[in-house]
Amino acid sequence: MGFLDNSGDIILDAVLTDTGRMRLARGDGSFKITKFALGDDEIDYANYNKNHTSGSAYYDLEVLQTPILEAFTNNASSMHSKLLSISRTDLLYLPVLKLNEQQTITQRVSGPGNFGYNTFLVTVDENTEKPDNGVIATAEQGVILGSGTELDPATANFVRVDQGLNTVATVIPPTRALQGDLVENFYLVEIDNRLGKITSKTSPSEVAPLSFIDDDNMATYQVSNISGGGFVVSNNNTDVVGESGAEDQVITGPRGTRLDFRIQASDDLFSSDYYFDLFGSTGTKNSVAVKFIDTFIRITGVSTGYRIDIPIRFLKKD
Amino acid sequence: MAATFKRFFDSDVARTVSKLHEAIPITGTIVSGTYTESGDGTNIKNYAHGMFQSVYDYPYLSSSANHIFDTTVGYSANSGLSGSASVQNTKKINIYNQMAQILVEKDVNGNIQEFDQDGNISAGGTKMQECVFISLARLLTKDEVKKQSFSLQVLTGGANSAPSDIETVSDYNALTEYKVNSPAGEYGLLYTSSTGITTSSAVGHLYYQAGIAVLTASVFDGEFGPMNVSIGTASINQVLTGGTIESSSTGLRNRWYNLDFNNTTELNSSIYFCRANSNEFNYSSNPTYLSGSKLVVKNDFDDTPVSYVTSIGLYNDKNELLAVAKLSEALKKDPTNELTLRVRLDY
Question: What is the ipTM of this complex?
């Protein structure tokens, strides 16, 4: 009888991320590892063939052959998708996050070829926002006024993300409640802190609770249904999409919570063209010369781990 | 409640210290002859103050050059060589006092004491009043020189133009017989032979953490000095009194045959035991895991969920990713198995 191969090292060497090194250098106690998560960024579950004719031993043949990359030291480049702990094993559906564009005031710029197509345009100063200057029209679709002026919450554009089971109504209809352990109550919202910040839908002066800013200037805000500001609210609508009463719904199955917010441009973008010149571009909108920066906002459910990226374009009249 | 993070308990974290050794050879050709001014430029750096000489592994004007050690010489003010007629007399005394101040404990009145041959200062005994100092760069010694690994071979015989007679100076038996009465840390005694060791046969000290070797000048009992340069009768005493520190350092390099030692790096590690129990981490938030909210790895409710681990992230309380470890291949996780992944973070 042969010996078992014990040549493999079962201890994994970890590398500090750039944020880890920054926290270590700061020496203020913020470098304290308290928890872990497991990630599967490289895995494409489409390669999992649960109908393989040779049986279950062959289901994950391709998945297990996936080559694994070395660790990235940039904290933003790793652990994009995390494994999820749910004690039940009989789940067939998991909730997702979806950008809700069912209302005009929550829609991105539409129409291929239009300036900023498929993004939210965020104006950075009043000079850009004034309809008289011709850059944007009054209440233009996909434009979020980010200069900081007070807005009418009922009519001003904002970003809305809905959470729930996006199942076909005939399978699990929205009339059924989303099970409690699948309801997402905490969200992380990440945005480049040099460019803007996350504010409440109801008041541009109410900034979301800032959790931290990493070494690459990515700010992470943590909002919940108990943190105030109306960022996270329960979505109690049970109407079926396509029927009356569900005109503003995007989740077709049981619904959990919704996340609403606006974006306010940073003081740097408001007062200076520096970042526009450094990593922005120039163009014309409505025949007016403008400068713009393309970026994105990342939203992650803390409990369910699901994340989506929302494209944003900061806009300034040249 | 769904969760993507799992907190560590105190029992999930272990801390260890391990030592890593590297073998460092410094051959005589590097020290005394590979690079010349007429070639790529010299790897020996002299200074206007003339207090020591630096040796690099490559011409020092190159950005590729690494500083490997410094040499200097000195004698005590009580030495017979000390005198106003000696060249750089004050500087040699200053060097000796500086080294003694750092490496030898002061007396109760705060006075600098001389290097004691056997390290037993309170017992008196022979003092090393004329010394050659080799100060190894931190780049080579790292945290410390490994005990009983130091072996310096010097040529003590022959003429300066053709040195001969290799003598090996080493810290024999230092693993079990090192000293701890130096303010600079631990040190071992250097001997020219592994046999017949007595307290009076030591020819120097090796300070492990400081990375400094102190040799008594008398170990060079033959001709000494720079090649083809005549200083008196070319004994080391003649060079120490009639030559500069620079020429004495050049003399040492001329007599250098080889140096080998092992350095030591202390690795402080934290080992995190990342435990995934049977009912944990069986689902994924990977976008490819779902198709219209339905799990792609299951056909029916009673199929067991499955996920695959490729990386482990270590976080602080604010969910900042502080460290990442990667697996070499995807690891299957389902309710029928449990995983304990040991993640080591070195400091």
Answer: 0.90
